[in-house]
Amino acid sequence: MRASALAICLLAPLVVTSCTHLRGRAPSSPTALHESSPKIRLLNTKIFGHSADDAIVLLQPNNGDKVDPEYVLTDIKGGRYYAATVCYPPTLTVDDVRTSINEVYGKYELRDLVTPEGGVWRNVDDKFAIGLNKDADGIHVIYITFQPIREVFKNMLKAGVFGPFSDRPEEPSQ
Question: How remote is the C-alpha of 114 from its chain's centroid?
Fold first, then answer.
């Protein structure tokens, strides 16, 4: 009797794991996705605020098992890095990328804004936000530092968010 009880205890995890593998991730197993998902190299967010003249390390370290981005675009304002767009290959899934982001920034994820096509993280401690989306070109992870509210409204006015420019010259009527 003891031998069969021991055998059941030893085989039960194997059977459950095999069944989970056949039908997909078990709903009660949040780590199942972590084990099978490819990991990505994330941006080194310590670049934010550094001068464009400084030597910087653009990506977090890779021990050889992480997927490198296809390209990284950085934004500079006032001679300092303040935003970046990192594009990963379309062979990855949004869930793969979300899993890697959540390993570092999971507590900042805005769960109400999670969609099959993306997500949003708001890191109030380090004062930047992350946006995730997928299109035909690949999966894009956009990082942007918080900007002063005066600058945000100025940019919104320039973009016409509140209607047409009040100082734009009138176009001639035809």
Answer: 11
Q: How many separate domains does the chain show?
A: 2
Looking at the DSSP bridge assignments, the partners of residue 74 are 84
Q: Are residue 96 and residue 69 in the same domain, yes or no? A: yes
- In terms of domains, do 11 and 81 share one? no
Average pLDDT over residues 43-69: 94
Weakest-pLDDT range from 8-17, 30-39, 55-64, 122-131: 8-17
Distances (CA, A) of 138 to 26, 60, 73, 90, 135: 28, 20, 14, 4, 6
Contact 103, 33 (CB under 8 A): no
Q: Which two tokens stand for residue 132?
A: 């995730």
Q: What is the pLDDT of residues 28-41, one digit of tens each?
A: 334 344 456 799 99
In this structure, the answer to whether residues 87 and 3 fall within a common structural domain is: no
Q: In this structure, is residue 63 part of a structural domain?
A: yes
3-state secondary structure at position 168: coil
